[in-house]
């Protein structure tokens, strides 16, 4: 078992930021990532709201962020974390090949979108997107649709309404489940249409999305659209934390202003956190706060 002061889990923007701050502070840590460093950012076509880097390709921005850690010799170790537990005041972080014993952990694994519609996976970045704030500007004056329930869909719809020629919201419920004020705002918008008791069954198009098939009150229909934001499949990547009994909200980790979770010594940053805005810039901020909080925690522990 390898002993280390800190383990960072995840190499998206939040993990990158945490690693940079810890390395510059001279901290000892192991940085784990199960896939390609950069997180979901590497699959985003364009990021137009990251300060100082206008209209960046997601992959290029991810590589630029990673270069900042390479300049201070912070390197990522491949490893998919299977579980995190706590014994005698120390965290036991287990991957498929290695086990680490750490005094503190920063979890920055984000969330994953699980495709559930026929053609969804094939049309990712070809009309299918999970981030309206990121990709909405690509569909100015075009017909776009969202699918799901809850406040996240309403928030994205309000943003898209200012850009698109029309916004259609599909929901399986007879009445939309979400914030009443946002529902009222959208109901007054001429460009916004709600389709209740509906289920999107297939996404069509060759080089790019051109239309969708859906069922409304049991009747099969087809609609031409330019983009679909299916927000039903959001799933927090936090199941490996279950041995800790950590406090969450729908799988997303609850933290305080220092990014500290309900389990002492475990911090969370980025999209895995229970919060209202999930963006590259907020993830980077979370990572910086989590890193400085961990350093403070370790200093107090040493004393």
Please characterize this protein's 3D structure:
With 303 residues, the chain is of the alpha/beta class. It has six helices and 18 strands. It has helices spanning 13-24, 58-70, 132-135, 151-161, 180-187, 280-302; strands at 2-9, 29-33, 77-78, 81-87, 90-95, 99-107, 111-113, 143-147, 166-170, 192-195, 198-204, 211-216, 219-224, 227-230, 234-236, 248-249, 252-253, 266-268. The strands form five sheets. Strands 1, 2, 3, 4, 5, 6 and 18 form a seven-stranded mixed sheet that branches. A four-stranded parallel sheet has the order 10-9-8-14, with helices on one face. A three-stranded antiparallel sheet has the order 11-12-13, with no helix packed on it. A hairpin with a 3-residue loop joins β5 (90-95) and β6 (99-107).
Topology:
Layout: E1 2-9, H1 13-24, E2 29-33, H2 58-70, E3 77-78, E4 81-87, E5 90-95, E6 99-107, E7 111-113, H3 132-135, E8 143-147, H4 151-161, E9 166-170, H5 180-187, E10 192-195, E11 198-204, E12 211-216, E13 219-224, E14 227-230, E15 234-236, E16 248-249, E17 252-253, E18 266-268, H6 280-302
Parallel strand pairs: 1-2, 1-6, 2-3, 6-18, 8-9, 8-14, 9-10
Antiparallel strand pairs: 4-5, 5-6, 7-15, 11-12, 12-13, 16-17
Annotation, overall tally of beta strands: 18
The H/E string reads: EHEHEEEEEHEHEHEEEEEEEEEH
Query: How many strands, what sense, and barrel or not for the largest sheet?
Result: 7 strands, mixed
Averaged pLDDT: 92
Q: Give the radius of gyration.
A: 21 Å
Number of helices: 6
| Estimated structural class | alpha/beta
Please tell me what the overall shape is.
Answer: elongated
Percent of residues in helical segments? 10-25%
CA-CA gap between termini: 25 Å
Low-confidence stretches: none
What portion of the residues fall into strands of 2 or more residues?
A: 25-35%
């Amino acid at each position: 078992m390898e002993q280390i002061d800190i383990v960072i889990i995840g190499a998206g923007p939040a993990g990158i930021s945490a690693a940079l701050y810890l390395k510059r502070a001279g901290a000892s840590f192991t940085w784990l990532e199960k896939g390609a460093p950069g997180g979901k950012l590497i699959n985003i076509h364009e990021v137009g709201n990251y300060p100082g880097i206008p209209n960046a390709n997601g992959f290029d921005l991810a590589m630029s962020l990673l270069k900042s850690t390479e300049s201070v010799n912070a390197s990522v170790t491949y490893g998919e974390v299977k579980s995190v537990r706590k014994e005698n005041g120390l965290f036991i972080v287990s991957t498929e090949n290695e086990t680490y014993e750490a005094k503190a952990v920063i979890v920055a694994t984000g969330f994953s979108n699980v495709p559930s519609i026929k053609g969804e996976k094939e049309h990712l970045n070809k009309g299918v997107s999970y981030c309206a704030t990121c990709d909405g500007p690509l569909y100015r004056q075009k017909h776009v649709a969202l699918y799901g329930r809850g406040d996240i869909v309403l928030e994205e719809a309000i943003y898209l309404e200012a850009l698109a020629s029309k916004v259609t919201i599909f929901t399986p419920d007879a009445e939309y489940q979400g914030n009443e004020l946002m529902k009222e705002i959208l109901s007054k918008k001429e460009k916004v249409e709600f389709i209740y008791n509906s289920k999107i069954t297939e996404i069509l198009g060759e080089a790019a999305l051109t239309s969708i098939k859906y069922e409304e009150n049991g009747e099969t229909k087809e609609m031409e659209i330019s983009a679909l934001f299916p927000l039903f499949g959001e799933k927090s990547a936090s199941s490996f934390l279950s041995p800790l009994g950590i406090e969450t909200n729908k799988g997303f980790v609850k933290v305080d202003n220092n990014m500290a979770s309900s389990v002492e010594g475990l911090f969370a940053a980025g999209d895995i956190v229970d919060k209202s805005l999930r963006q590259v810039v907020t993830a980077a901020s979370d990572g910086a706060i989590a890193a400085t909080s961990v350093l403070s925690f370790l200093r107090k522990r040493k004393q």
